[in-house]
Amino acid sequence: MSAGPTRSDLLAENAQHHFQQGKKYYQVKDAEGARREFDQAIDLMLEASDNPSDRQLYESRFEEMVDTIHRHDLAGLGSAANLDEPEYQKAPLEDILQMTFPVDPKLKVKVREQVQATVSQLPLIVNDAVLGYINFFSGRGRRTLLAGLRRAGRYRPLIQRVLDEEGVPQELIHLAQAESGFLARARSRKAAVGMWQFMAFRGREYGLNQTRNSDDRLDPEKATRSAARHLRDLYQKFGDWYLAIAAYDCGPGVIDKAVARTGYADFFQLRKLGVLPKETTNYVPIILAMTIMTKNAAEYGLDGIQPDPPLEYDTIEVNSPTHLALISDMSNTPVPELLDLNPSLLRGLAPAGYSVHVPKGSGSYLMAALQLIPAERRASWRMHTVENGETLATIGKRYRMSAFSIAAANNMRAETPVVGDRLLIPSAYHEVRPVSQAAAAKRSRTHAKSAKSQRARAKNAPVRARTRRASGFQQSSGKLAHAAR
Question: Which of 5, 151, 200, 304 has the most crowded Cβ, counting Cβ within 10 A?
Answer without folding.
Answer: 151
